[in-house]
Amino acid sequence: MPDATPPPGVDTTRPSPARLYDWALGGRDNYQVDREAGAAALAVVPGLRETAVYNRAWLKRVVRYMCEQGIRQFIDIGSGLPTAENVHQVAQRHHPDARVVYVDNDPSVHVHARALLDDTDQAGQTAFVLADVRAPNTIMATAEVDRLIDLSQPVGLIIAAVLHFVGGNDDPADLVARLTGPLSPGGYVAISHATTEGASPEALAAVDAVFRNASEYQYVRSRDEIERILNAVPRGLMMDPGLVPVHEWRPDERVPEPPMALLGAVLRL
Questions:
Q1: What is the Cα Rg of the chain in Å?
Q2: Could you give the maximum distance between any two Cα atoms of the chain, in Å?
Q3: Which Pfam families does the record match to this protein (predicted)?
Q4: Please, what are the domains in the chain?
Q5: What would the pLDDT profile of 134-152 be if each residue is shown by its tens digit?
């Protein structure tokens, strides 16, 4: 069956990171160009899909952890396409009054997230902002953040699997500093990032081949480079177990090692 006609502004001539992530998680909000790129990578490195699966599971554990620490408001930057167990669904199981602002720069995400929120958010506790992580001041000044997020109170800021789409010229450490600077003490910041650590040469080559032709390139970084990004968080205190592969961060179960991992950490402000 052919793909549906894409919404206005959605480019289906190149793979999209958000749609590739959706495909890897078994979603349906992707196009032939995304499926072909993903399948080509899996043909070289069959276990590569687990990188996305593990990151999504980490995100759910992170939200649960933050809720257990009393966090009731969240900003999810680089939220990706809606799937099962979105941030607001996990958070509102713990705190029914939890509020979430989703942020992404992909028009595909905007269309699908708006549809989901319009259908399900009867209490007006969630919002979506079409914006780029490279514009932190714009994000924090939006009407949606102003309406739902009280910056004088602790916030859970999530930047999951997005900073590896920011090149060095855009200085991801500076972006993190500017995003976390306005947040109050007692909040938390969760960051995950693709790493060269432990990655097979085949996996790195497959990822490069996919994202070289995608709408955003993926910059896979070393542990030292990721640590420099985390060190930009003002007052940031690393929570146990520190910066580790996401599948090893407070796991609910043990899983096989992927051919390429994301490193993840949670810091308390």
A1: 17
A2: 52
A3: Methyltransf_19 (PF04672)
A4: 59-198+219-268 (3.40.50.150)
A5: 999 999 999 999 999 999 9
